[in-house]
């Protein structure tokens, strides 16, 4: 029983982190162009902004 | 190597298409100010389809010095460009109080469009118009995520309760579940509550009413159980129901959204403004809405006429395909009336406006379309029809179980619990998923073949059709004249003619040039300088050996006689000093595979008809060639719409396939409609389906997929109802436990989804014969008109 006091918050926290990560990725536009991202991987030019 | 054909043909086309690019004023009007002198503008580039396309467009854009960022979105076929219109001035100009001073970078925004065009892709301005719909999708996906989190965690706790937790642990878990479920219910459930409330207020019912009642009751009865230390808590059912239903809702929305953005993004090239010539000769670019009757508007070669008017000065050939759907250009001179939306091909004109933009020919068409909106509005989606039956049955069932149990054992609390269990079990989870999943899969399948569907009900309607009406020019034919027997003409003559034709924007010249340099002949083109275009006649040029002329018979041979030119779209002559050298004959070509497709469709027992605005002999010739018996020629846009409406009234389900603006009212009036991507913008907006490839085989393919989808939807309904037949008696007898509810609900949802996915592997669909590779999307460079 005592274990549950730790384990349940830990489980919820981990789930919450996953949820937050998903919401963040949604907000930052990671799902905006699913097809384009697949192609960009195999084009060999330097896709980084010039640093 | 790249699959993109862009490039080779584009080199010479570039000069021509430059005039079809959005003007810098239009780009300026459409761009968003990001602050600090940065502007963003979105172009729609329908031709991109692979990694090489992305790279070449982005590289070309980044080479423009003022461009800060350029990113191609392959899914939406759009390019977002951020460019610097102003930069902070350097040095002593900076005033600490006034902030940095900005100076213009001097970039003409049309450079951006030109950079894209230089890679060989046609580009159009994209005006975001569905921002609200995008936002709703984002909200739905967020709600799916939140309810998914809640469902997973509550399920975790429920599993340990089911596997035998002691009473105090069970209570604790129930309380935690209640705490997790409450925010999810509010955040995720609001979509259903809003929708249910909206229809209940009007005294109607939809699928959201039983959903809203189901999730609310299950939550509050579970809360009540928890407070009284009971064991029948349905929090897991509440959360997982919400999760599955929101997935269905998000899919439904996504499907409608995707196609819509692709279609509306293709072209909105109606001139937003025009150059007004003042009394003192001043030139002023103004929005069309601000131009008054009687003002003089200058239109240069290659520009669209923005308003109805009368030609004051100049001569030109007009591309009037937008008005009558035919590709033969019309020659106009002073005193002729011109209609808004037509394209001046060969010469510049000054036009006195006789109507304001809102009274123009185009607005008339739009009014016709609005009046015609009939069959589609009356159609009720399968899901709504099912809900109409389902909701009352379920509610009656729950009510009667409550009364019967109450009277039977006198324990009204138990009776209430049974009634609630019935409502939870029958909550239309699988029904909510059954339709959208199938439609999303079907739409994806169509999308792969270059067919875009505007909304799910279009597929339901397409599956029911019993007759098809085709427009002629641009639909059964490509609407492009093609020279016949060009191979028999002396290649030297072809080289000269192509050299002359390269300088003209006239459709016959363009077609001649394309045929001469295209795949079939690949002949040399003699480059000829100093080519002069004479509107309404042809082109001429001085060469060492004399004066070459390419044009109609009268012009080329220098005849004075005003003999009839014959059919407008027929022949072009090449002459040297008035002596005829070669004659090129033209014919509009059928769409690839048109004959086979028509035969196919007739084989399926569909009634076929041709509706055309063209002259009667031409239409009968084509109809006879394709074997279509029913035909109507010389129809006005209103006649076509009337034909569709009368079919509708006769209770027949007509599919209209058409492309021109003149077809737009018919496209809206028909039960369901399809348009090629080469259609005018209004036509595309009015149609339910838009197909991107040249071949007409998109029509039987779309019908086939729609029928398969309809079949799967019915199967899914049968599965969902079959599950209820099994589960409802269990609930009615009072044996339903939260475990049974959760298991039954999840499995029924999964089965429905799995069944929908069968469409992907479905065999027996019409396959493209012969050709392995699907050609890249071909779009006619004719800009459309925006509504």
Automatic annotation (TrEMBL), chain A:
Superkingdom as given in the UniProt entry: Bacteria
Pfam families xref list: FixS (PF03597)
Transmembrane segments: 6-26
Keywords for the protein's UniProt record, in alphabetical order: Membrane, Transmembrane, Transmembrane helix
Entries under PANTHER family matching the protein: FIXS PROTEIN
UniProt name for this protein: Cbb3-type cytochrome oxidase maturation protein
Organism: Allorhizobium taibaishanense
């Amino acid at each position: 029983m005592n274990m549950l006091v730790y384990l349940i918050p830990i489980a919820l926290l981990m789930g919450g982190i996953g949820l937050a990560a998903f919401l963040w990725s949604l907000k930052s536009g990671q799902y905006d162009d699913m097809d384009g991202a697949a192609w960009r991987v195999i084009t060999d030019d330097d896709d980084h902004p010039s640093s | 190597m790249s699959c993109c054909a862009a490039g080779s043909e584009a080199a010479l086309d570039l000069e021509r298409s430059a005039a079809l690019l959005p003007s810098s004023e239009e780009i300026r009007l459409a761009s968003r100010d990001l602050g600090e002198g940065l502007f963003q503008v979105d172009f729609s580039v329908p031709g991109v389809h692979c990694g090489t396309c992305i790279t070449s467009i982005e590289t070309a854009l980044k080479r423009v010095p003022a461009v800060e960022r350029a990113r191609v979105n392959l899914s939406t076929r759009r390019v977002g460009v951020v460019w610097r219109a102003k930069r902070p001035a350097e040095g002593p100009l900076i005033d600490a109080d006034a902030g940095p001073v900005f100076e213009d970078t001097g970039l003409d925004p049309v450079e951006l469009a030109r950079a894209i065009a230089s890679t060989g892709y046609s580009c159009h301005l994209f005006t975001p118009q569905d921002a609200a719909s995008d936002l709703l999708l984002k909200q739905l996906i967020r709600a799916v995520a939140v309810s998914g989190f809640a469902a997973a965690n509550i399920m975790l706790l429920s599993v340990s309760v089911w596997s035998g937790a002691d009473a105090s642990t069970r209570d604790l878990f129930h309380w935690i579940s209640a705490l997790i479920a409450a925010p999810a219910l509010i955040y995720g459930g609001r979509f259903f509550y809003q929708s249910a409330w909206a229809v209940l207020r009007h005294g109607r019912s939809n699928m959201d009413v039983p959903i809203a009642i189901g999730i609310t009751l299950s939550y509050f009865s579970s809360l009540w159980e928890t407070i009284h230390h009971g064991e029948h808590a349905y929090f897991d059912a509440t959360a997982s129901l919400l999760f599955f239903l929101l997935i269905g809702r998000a899919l439904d929305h996504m499907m409608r959204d995707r196609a819509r953005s692709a279609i509306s993004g293709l072209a909105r090239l109606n001139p937003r403004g025009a150059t007004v010539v003042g009394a003192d000769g001043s030139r002023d670019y103004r929005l069309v809405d601000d131009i008054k009757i009687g003002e003089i508007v200058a239109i240069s070669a290659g520009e669209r006429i923005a308003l109805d008017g009368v030609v004051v000065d100049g001569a030109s050939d007009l591309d009037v395909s937008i008005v009558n759907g035919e590709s033969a250009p019309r020659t106009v001179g002073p005193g002729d009336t011109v209609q808004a939306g037509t394209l001046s091909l060969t010469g510049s004109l000054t036009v006195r406006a006789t109507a304001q933009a809102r009274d123009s020919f185009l607005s008339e068409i739009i009014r016709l379309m609005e009046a015609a909106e009939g069959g589609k509005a009356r159609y009720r989606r399968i899901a709504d029809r099912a809900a109409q039956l389902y909701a009352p049955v379920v509610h009656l069932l729950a009510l009667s179980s409550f009364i019967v149990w109450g009277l039977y054992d006198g324990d009204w609390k138990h009776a209430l619990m049974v009634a609630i269990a019935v409502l939870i079990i029958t909550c239309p989870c699988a029904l909510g998923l059954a339709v959208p999943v199938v439609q999303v899969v079907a739409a994806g399948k169509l999308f792969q073949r270059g067919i875009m569907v505007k909304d799910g009900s279009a597929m339901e309607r397409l599956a029911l059709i019993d007759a098809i009406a085709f427009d002629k020019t641009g639909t059964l034919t490509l609407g492009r004249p093609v020279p016949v027997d060009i191979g028999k003409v002396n290649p030297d003559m072809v080289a000269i003619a192509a050299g002359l034709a390269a300088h003209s924007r006239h459709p016959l010249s363009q077609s001649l040039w394309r045929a001469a340099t295209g795949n079939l002949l690949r002949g040399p083109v003699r480059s000829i300088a100093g080519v002069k275009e004479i509107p309404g006649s042809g082109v001429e040029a001085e060469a060492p050996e004399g004066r070459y002329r390419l044009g109609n018979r009268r012009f080329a041979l220098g005849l004075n006689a005003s003999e009839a030119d014959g059919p407008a779209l027929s022949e072009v002559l090449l002459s040297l000093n008035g002596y005829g050298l070669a004659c090129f004959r033209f014919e509009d070509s059928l769409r690839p595979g048109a004959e086979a497709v028509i035969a196919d469709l007739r084989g399926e027992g569909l009634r076929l008809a041709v509706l055309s605005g063209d002259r009667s002999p031409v239409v009968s010739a084509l109809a006879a060639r394709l074997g279509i018996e029913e035909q109507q020629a010389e129809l006005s846009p209103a006649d076509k719409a009337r034909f569709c409406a009368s079919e509708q009234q006769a209770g027949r389900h007509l599919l209209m396939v058409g492309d021109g603006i003149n077809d737009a009212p018919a496209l809206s009036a028909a039960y369901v409609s399809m348009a090629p991507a080469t259609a005018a913008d209004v036509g595309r907006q009015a149609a339910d389906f838009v197909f991107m490839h040249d071949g007409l085989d998109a029509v039987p393919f779309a019908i086939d997929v729609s029928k398969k989808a309809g079949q799967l939807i019915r199967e899914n309904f049968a599965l969902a109802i079959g599950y209820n037949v099994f589960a409802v008696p269990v609930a009615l007898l009072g044996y339903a436990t939260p475990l049974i509810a959760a298991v039954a609900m999840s499995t029924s949802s999964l089965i429905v989804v799995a069944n929908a996915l069968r469409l992907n592997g479905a065999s027996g669909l019409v396959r493209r014969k012969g050709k392995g590779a699907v050609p890249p999307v071909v779009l006619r460079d004719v800009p459309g008109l925006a509504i």
